[in-house]
Amino acid sequence: MARKLPEINASSMADIAFLLLIFFLVTTTMDIDKGLPVNLPPLDESNEPPPPTNINKRNTLNILINSQDQLLVKGEPLEVRELRELTKRHVGNYGADPNFSVSPKKAVVSLKNHRGTRYETYITVQNELRAAYNELRDEYSERYFGRTFDKLPDAHKSVVRAEYPLKISEAEPDKTGSGAE
Fold first, then answer.
1. Fewer CB within a 10 Å sphere, N or C end of the chain?
2. 3-state SS assignment for residue 83
3. How far is it, in rounded angstroms, from Cα 181 to Cα 71?
4. Domain covering 59-170 in this structure, CATH number
């Protein structure tokens, strides 16, 4: 004579699974990728070309990265490790050297990448450019406010940002695809 096994009441299993699902959805955090903070131009619905701007070539630091990840700055080859100091010299020149910008407010760094440039090289160059601006802002903050930029109150930070505005222009490669070669 076979014995009948008792059945397990599974009627509340769906409720328990649903409650666990809600619990995990509510308590789980999601990391959000921040990306690079870049100012984009406004969307222009009309296809009219922008009005020409008069930019003194002296105020522009042209940086080209070719498909072999080599830098060409102001027409001369340059190592990435030298880029920060050159950028600081260009932006913080205050008109002293005729080969660099007239003032930090007018200085522009123009970055142009070949389509074959590796992402790591692009990020390294971006980091060096931003580090140059950060160091200039820190030096200015120390000189006038007695502390580094990140420790300043917001009102003083806006003064420093106005003195050293971050102007990095990114140009697309040439239509021919030659880019910065």
1. N
2. helix
3. 10
4. 3.30.420.270
